[in-house]
Amino acid sequence: MGQIDERLAELGIDIPTPAAPVANYLGWVRTGNLVFTAGQVTVKDGEFLYQGKVGAEISVEEAAKAAKLCAINIIAQVKQACDGDLDRVKRIVKLVGFVNGVPEFTDHPAVINGASDLMVEVFGDKGKHARSAVGAGSLPINIAVEIEAIVEVA
Amino acid sequence: MGQIDERLAELGIDIPTPAAPVANYLGWVRTGNLVFTAGQVTVKDGEFLYQGKVGAEISVEEAAKAAKLCAINIIAQVKQACDGDLDRVKRIVKLVGFVNGVPEFTDHPAVINGASDLMVEVFGDKGKHARSAVGAGSLPINIAVEIEAIVEVA
Amino acid sequence: MGQIDERLAELGIDIPTPAAPVANYLGWVRTGNLVFTAGQVTVKDGEFLYQGKVGAEISVEEAAKAAKLCAINIIAQVKQACDGDLDRVKRIVKLVGFVNGVPEFTDHPAVINGASDLMVEVFGDKGKHARSAVGAGSLPINIAVEIEAIVEVA
User: Fold this and answer.
1) How far is C104 from chain B, CA to nearest CA, in Å?
2) In a domain, A106, yes or no
3) Percent of chain C, pLDDT > 70?
4) Closest of A3, A18, A14 to residue A81, by C-alpha
5) Do C29 and A129 touch (CB under 8 A)?
6) What CATH number does residue A81 fall under?
7) Is B20 among the domain residues?
8) Number of domains present in the structure of chain B
9) Range of the domain at C83
10) Do B91 and A29 lie within an 8 Å CB cutoff?
11) Which pLDDT does position B22 carry in this prediction?
12) Residue B23 pLDDT greater than 90, yes or no
């Protein structure tokens, strides 16, 4: 059991096995030392959670939980990219977070903090990343948040 | 004639010569073994096609064709980056697809599949990429889809 | 004083010291020779400028100035990543510009030109980059433009 696995256990976070891709794309691709993940969504145990516009049906607090779930699914993809060994993560390099807000929504950073905070809780300083938080006009299946990542691995 | 050129001929796909840039940016930049393309749009023979909001004036089926056209224009940029030799493509690493949907649009994956499917038809396993599919609030010239790519080349 | 510093002085552009991060993310992360910046916003001397929807409260001309301000803040992050020496910039590789437009907005390229033009004014041919210009559905604090960058450095 690795250090990151121990940390996840302390935090009570289960990292799921990523679902097999259902189309002509993959959950992650590695090139050199960088892993690029697909946009991760608010799916848990095969069910889509947190559906609705942020600022209308979904509050900022709920949306931050949605962002945390996206981050857990990013870690799941990265774990697979590292053959199961999350101690090979050198750095969470970049997150781009898309928030499915109403047009007048303005609090994207508070939403994406749900993902950023988790990355630092799990990976410490290696979890500190560059980040963009923007508003999408719409998102697949009307989910509240979608996040993609670039991760440096050994 | 390379293997990928033969495959494109089999598929009946013509790869255009990219238009010369009209502003202070380029269609692609290479750094190390990675080519980053500019966001590619639904232009064919100098004409903009597929203009309108997806879910209103543009159907999912039409938008998937728009995504395929963006993918053809991505391949055109990558071909130039490879001095005309598409056999130097090692991997389509990442696609980010922006769909100009109405706010309640939810079927972004079906739209961007038009690009993902083409990449795998043309490049086989090397065409399998990580992908994000998100909704834009608006797009240039009111086109239905814009897609950017990261490609590993030799 | 480096060549790029001299060029900035000629252009009358002050590069600010980036504000310390206020959350669990950073203004930039370097991996290999690439610097990924966080999405940069329209902040100057701690104040947020250019707030409003482009095509409604904000004109294209104002939005292009907003994009220029984002580009100045990108250069500020990159300067820090280069220990203060902007001559170590090898290439502005990629910009992704998000425009907070009304749904019918169509002139994203003219907005993001405000950033692209500055990069070429400052860095010359090294400033020529691949670029995506898309419409966000909303942006943090209702700013008009947010831009992120990938930069190759020595």
Assistant:
1) 6
2) yes
3) 100
4) A18
5) yes
6) 3.30.1330.40
7) no
8) 1
9) 3-153
10) yes
11) 75
12) no
